[in-house]
Fold each of these.
Amino acid sequence: MAKKTRQMQPLTYKIIKLFIQASICQILLCIITIGTVQSQNLEEYRVKAAFVYNFTKLIQWPQTAFDNEGENFKMVVVGDEYLKESFQTIDGKISTGRLISIQYSDPKANDFKKTLEESHIIFISRHIRLEQVLQILSNIGDRPVLTIGEDKNFSRAGGIIQFFTREDQLHFEVNVKKAEAHQLKFSSRLLKLAVIVNEKE
């Protein structure tokens, strides 16, 4: 009996050792996967930030949208940490003679509505619930503000530009009627690259 117990001990030790090794492998795999997803998200939003920068060159805001000739493009970014790091790539850049000034805001913040009122561009990530998106669009009203989102219903719910992916390529939709309601004029060059949609289409 004692001999049998001694034979079982090495076997039990091997099983425990294999279990620990397997657990370590799973943890490492999770870390690698999370790191890859974070890297992909970071790169994705850098590309979207570059798109937004080019939008500012191809869209005309009415003069009434700015207090003076040299006023900054005030952009509000609503989302998680990926957006903050990625949109820093265009923060401080000059477009059509105006410096792009980016502010990161939380819909739960006390001054959120005031921040929206002072903005010219609002980017809303897919991590924001549709109910909150609709509330943001409602708060903006018809002021000359370019709204950009990622939710699949964004442009049809009253947003102006909606990003989407097709065959691993980034594309965007434009709700032209909503853009006109906000007194924003899109260049023909930009519209040729876009999918044109109507609200509640």
Amino acid sequence: MAEHCLEQYRSRSAALAGAVPPVDRAGLAGFLAALLRDVAGPGRARVLAYPELQVEAARRPWPAALPAPIGASDFAAHGHLLGAAGLPGGPGRARALTLALHGSIPHLLAGAPNPLAAAGLDDLEGFTRGLLDSICPDEQEAP
């Protein structure tokens, strides 16, 4: 099952890599919102397997290496997306974006309305715009 999950992830990542990257902040926010909508909707069954795999990896050593490529790939992909959208990148911003998106996944999978609203995940476009504003503030807003 773990290897199947990793193969599905690689297939999905390859499809996304072939897509035209967003060229500005608004495009990137929309792209990220679409990814999160997929987590909560059509991709839910596929994505549910990833947290289960991570928990299993914490219990048993043999699957521990399998989730590692997912995180590493996401850090690189999000860094690339920031740059393609004309936003400041770098490893710190890519990590912050990746970890915030990954952190939203359990809430989206559970789908409970009150926690979604409390996290801002009831408005995915607003959530991703706010996330990008926090990670890459406009130069006029930067201290």
Amino acid sequence: MKQARHPEPDEITLMEVMGALNDPIRVGLVRVLSDGREHGWGELRVPVAKSTLSHHLRVLRAAGVTRTRQEGTRCYVELRRGDLDDRFPGLLNAVLGAADRDDIGAHVGLAADDADA
């Protein structure tokens, strides 16, 4: 299976990152992934079709916000916090703080959250 291309840290641009973060679903995904863990796509709970989730994850990956890893038929995703913090210090914390304050992307979660409810 073909591996996805990830931009190198010096290829990540502010315009691409900001463009990727202009959607509440993608901001919600970043909020979920900000726990610092890698998550399987099947763990993500998003109120959209799987094909739309795939699109949102592809946009985040192409912008350098996330890293995707494929293992057999399963895909895993993690936030590239270190690369983003090195490239744009404080940006991710500002975005996450504003998203939390304004409740942006709160409708995105993990399957484990469903079990707790």
